[in-house]
Amino acid sequence: MAASDWFGFDNLTSFLLIGAALFALGMLGFIARRNLIVMFLSAEMMLQGVALTLVGFGRYHGNWTGQVFTIVILTVAACEASIALALTLVLFNRRLSLDVSLWSEIHEPDAATPVDTLDPEPSETHSGPESYPHLIPAGAEPPHPRQPWIERRE
Amino acid sequence: MHGSFLVRNCWLVPFFPLAGAVAAAIGGKRLGASAHIPVVIGIGLAFLVSLGLLGAAGADSTTVLFDWMNAGGLRVPVEFRVDGLSTMMLSMVTFVATLVAVFAVGYMAGDPAYPRFFACVGLFVFMMTGLVLSNNYVLTYVFWEGVGVCSYLLIGFWYAKPAAAAAAKKAFLVNRVGDFGFAIAIFWLWTVANNHDLSYSVVLDPANLKLIRPEAIFGISLLLLWAATAKSAQVPLYVWLPDAMEGPTPVSALIHAATMVTAGVYLIARSMPMISSDPRVLAIISLVGGITAALAAAIAITQTDLKRVMAYSTVSQLGYMFMALGAGVGSVAQLAVVAAMFHLFTHAFFKALLFLSSGSVMHAMGGVIDMRKFGGLRRKLPVTCATFAVGGLALAGVFPFAGFWSKDEILAALKLASEVSGGAEGTGWGWVYGLVYWVAVVTAGLTALYTGRAFFLTFFGPERLPTAEDLAAAGHGSHDDAHTNEHGHGHDDAHGHDTHIGHESPLIMTFPLVALATCAVGVGLLFGPTGIFEGHLEHTLGFENLGHAEHGTDWNSILIGTFAALFGLALSYPLFALPSRIPSILATRLGMLYRASLNKFYIDEIYAAVIVAPLSFLAQLSKFADVYIVDGLVRLIAKLPRALSRSALAPYQNGLIQFYAAAGVLGLAALLAILLLI
Amino acid sequence: MNEITTSEFVRSLLAVLLGGGGVYLMLPKGVSGISPRRGFGAGSAAFALALLISATFWSPPGAGLSRAFFVLFGLTSIASGTLMITARDPVHSALWFAAVVLSTAGLFLIAGAQFLAAGTVIVYAGAIIVTFLFVIMLAQMEGKASYDRSARAPGRSVLSCFLLMWALAYALISMRSDARATVEGGSARLLADERILIPTPSITRVGNSPPQSGLSEVLRRASRPTAQLPERSNPAGPHVAGLGATLFADHLIAVELAGGLLFIALVGAIAIATPKPPIRPVVRVASPPANAPRL
Asked: pTM of the predicted model, to two decimals?
């Protein structure tokens, strides 16, 4: 066995530490973010952390089981993503918003409904498509630059 | 003996009524008004088989159907015994039951629960025949309980009527008190019986009986007596029987004559080989019988309800049987048992007859049974009058009716017993039998008196029919409160009491009356003096070992008994048949006695005060403890988490999935930290 | 108890505290004293410091360039993850997630899982990310929504998650320092504590027999209890071939189950996402009375 093939406990620990960090950060995203899609992305990141852990263990023990597990996780993640995105679409069509706070009807009747005490950050000016470079058709007077871009699309 | 075809198939006797009952119960809705057919046929077939079994009876004829219990040292087979005693009982039970069932076809016609009635009757007969046939104490106990259940079902047949429901409950509870004694007796017997075998052939074997300690025999016998006093309505547990007439009249006839009350007498007679070895128990039995007979007869004199008179008369006559059983000391033993069973046998016929006749009167009077409300019915109800007269004469014990022969035998047995145990070599209990003998004589006079009273009040004197108010008060009410007009009792519907009361009953009801009347005249003469009955009973387990001395005809007792009966009857004619003021004068003169008798010597009230009230108080106390202490504790414990969750935990159930996830993570992190740091 | 040096303890605590504080500052917190831009900058600086501190715990496998790549991919994955959960725009989140997936794929490569690395990139970056972006664009055509600009209870969330992270890291570090002492004969065993005793598997080596082909062999291996799997496969053999052999023989049932799961998810996604007609209230037409005359 070559020296570079050596994979000891310290090496394993490195993988586990990174996996744990990804897991915890994903957890944080799931808990703290209110966008449904970002929440699902965070859940996927937690799965990534677990996959990293399993691969590291598989490497450490020198067999394929960890990778097989990871493949199964990959499958489950794909399934979860498809179902979750379908659900997200349905939910968005109902409320026209991706805020998870709108989906909290299942609570105790006299429990206080969750109120977001925090006001949102001031929105930065959004650079819309008007900043994109575009060609002015020949023979037409360009619209006034101050006009909102949606009205300029005629 | 074992090979006998009939003995091997004796299970058919209980089977036929059971099959009939099941058919009536299952097919009741479909059969409707013909639901009686399977039951009557079943009981009738059982009677025919019983007749066949009479010839096959032998002291050792038994047949095992299958093993019921086989646990360790206890083996209880379903085993039937076909000997003299059981075949005699079987024939009597099935014969009377057949006639009662036929009578009920007319009596119960139109009742909405017609199939249920016949199903219960069939079941009742099944239980009773099973009880008589079974060959060990445990199986007897099963049927013993079954008889109690069936009596409950039938007494409370009109369960919507409060009096009937109460009577049924009373009968059942009082019987439970007795059953308790029986159960203890069986447990005790199991501990002392040879090889723990509870079959009669083992327990009652003289060789095995010798191995049992006398104290055990004394205790077991007393417990069996305790059981018998409940089932056979003896002091102190007789109180249920008079109330039991709340059921339909055919049920009363069945209970009083054939199926229920005879069970206790049968049990004592069956266990006679064991009981007769202890003169103390015998004396107690005799004394119990004497007290019961006199007490019940004294109550019967003043009752105004015809059926109630008959009910107390039953109690009194059962007392006679116990007197006779108790007289079975030494060499008198066999004579005593034969006398008791013979009286049971004849009594079944004439008491069934009297009850059915009362039912016929009641039927004709539109449900009124109070003797003050009617009178002089001999022209309206000629057949009923004649049959009632026959039954009454038999009950009074007038020559040559059935009751005469059996009562005479009892008197003779009592006299012999007092002589045997009173002598120099006697047991010292002679005075008891002497006393009981005179009680029996006096009771015979009283019996004749109240029988004559009931008869004359009902059938003699100026003709009176119940008024419309009586009918309104009692007619519908007396036994079919439960059913309103449109569903009324058969005769109410069919005949309409306002215009048609006072008619003779239909043929299907008079036929059993005539048949029973014939028996009431004939069976005494046929079986008594000829010795057929005695000869038949000798084929009974253990009876050949009972003492039987030659005894001549006791003319003294015959004369005394007949005199008492005739005196009573003669006294009743001027008092009750002719318009006379003597009864009312007597009632005022003997005010206290009269009232005590009218109120049944306040026995029910005493029981209510001494037993029911403290128990009820205890129950209330327990209920209080249960509701406020036990339940309170439980409710308190239940309130605690509810209050906790309502105030402390419910706010966290805010429906926000991220909050739940955060709580889970925090918990996991805290758990990990604790595991690592501590 | 687990051995852990004071230096390790302080470093881990510092990393977690700095990281937690940094992420707290980076999260969108709505209106607060600090301006979002400045808070983000300070937070990312603190987090970068924490990341560097935590990198001191890593001992990358291999030698030379391999180690450098490990550190690079590790730092990238964690930093991308942090940026993903703090990004105000979900499109940015999705792109940062793609970066996480790519760097994780690199780590897979270093751990010797070439097939998985490729598969992850293809499946995640190629399919899932694209689907996410598609949905994001479908649902959020304009601007940043207000709910993207305020996190839910950032303090509480950061506290619980970094407590969890610290607990995990502490456990791993302390186990490593224990295991360091028990390395012998080239075979390190997880012997951190007598409470966590991993029995050395005493398994008959079934892989020694010459591999047979055919359905019966596949079925025999597929129906083998998990405890009888070979403890150590031959790492020297062809890599993807070895994985395929074990995947389609030893774990055949799992693969079939995964396939079934995918199929069911496909059916479910179509059933859920297909637009349905709106549910109309049931209009009850009053039925004519029973005795109405019939025509």
From this structure: 0.62
